[in-house]
Amino acid sequence: MKRALEQLAQDLAAARAGGWTVSPPADDRSALSLEQAYEVQERVTALLGAESRGWKVGSTSVAAQQRLGTSEPGAGRLPRQYVFESGAHVGVSPAHDVQVEVEFAFRLGMDLAPRDAPYEAGEVRQAVAAFMPGIELVGSRLVSGLAGSGRALVTADGGANVAFIAGREVALTGPWDLVDHECSLRINGEQTVTGTGARALGDPVLVLTWLANHLAARGMTLASGEIVTTGTCTGLEHVTHGDVLVGDFGSLGAVEVHLKPVDE
Question: How many Cβ atoms are within 10 Å of 257's Cβ, its own excluded?
Fold first, then answer.
C-alpha cells in the first residue's frame, strides 16, 4: 500500500504542475482512508517543493458535502506558488475543469497548538488578526473529476485547490460577525451569484474552529501568520482562461483575478 500511496502522490504532483489529469493507482477508491489521503496530500506538497501559506477548508455547505458523499469538511494545504494577490493573472488548465468560489478568508494572529481540550469558537475568534476577501479556484487532477472522486481522493488531491487569490487585509477589531455579511461573484463584469457568511458551516468562525481542532487531532498547529479560506459562499461556477473574476464583499473590499492559459 505504501508503494501505491507514493505513486498516487507522484502522479498528483506531476498532474498539478503539468496541467493534466491522472487515474488513481487502485480501482477500489474505498481502499484509500482519510488518514492515508492526508498523508498523500502532505507528500504532494513536498514533491511540489512548496512551502505552505496556510489552509483551505472545503465541503462547508450541505450541498458540497452531499456532492462528495461526506458529512464533514475537509482541509487542504495552500502551497505558496499557488497563492496570489488581487489583480494577478493566473494560469489555469482546461483539463482540471476549473471552477470559482468566493470565500471569507482570514490571517491568524496567534498559534492554535494541539491540546487535550477542543478549541471553542470564542477562542478561535480572538486568534484572528485580519479578514481578507478571497477567491479560490478549484478543480481536479483526477480523471474522475471533482464530483466523481469522493472525499478521500479529493483530499489527497489537495482538497481540489488550484489557486487562492487574496484581497487586501482588513483588521477585525471589537465584536465582529460575518454570518449575514454578503458577498457576490462577478464574471466578466456580470454579477453571477451572491451569498453570505452563513453558507460556510453557518459561520466562517465555525470553519476556523473545525480546522483548529482537525489539525490538533493530527498533532499540527494552526499557526500565526497562516491564511485560512473557509469554503464557498457562492457555490461553484465554471470558468476558463480569458475570464476576469471579482469577489465583492462590499464594505470589506473586493478581490480580482484574470485567468490565462497555463503556459503563458
Answer: 25
Instruction: Look at the block and give the residue holding cell 469538511.
Output: 73
Q: What is the pTM of this model?
A: 0.94
Number of domains the chain is built from: 1
CATH code for position 114: 3.90.850.10
Do residues 247 and 101 lie in contact, with contact meaning Cβ atoms separated by under 8 Å? no
Residue pointed to by grid coordinates 503556459:
263
167, amino acid identity = G
Residue 23 amino acid letter: S
Helix (H) or strand (E) holding 137: strand 128-138
Range of the domain at 50: 2-261
29-38: per-residue pLDDT in tens?
457 899 999 9
Q: Residue 155: its pLDDT value, please?
A: 95
End-to-end CA distance of the chain: 38
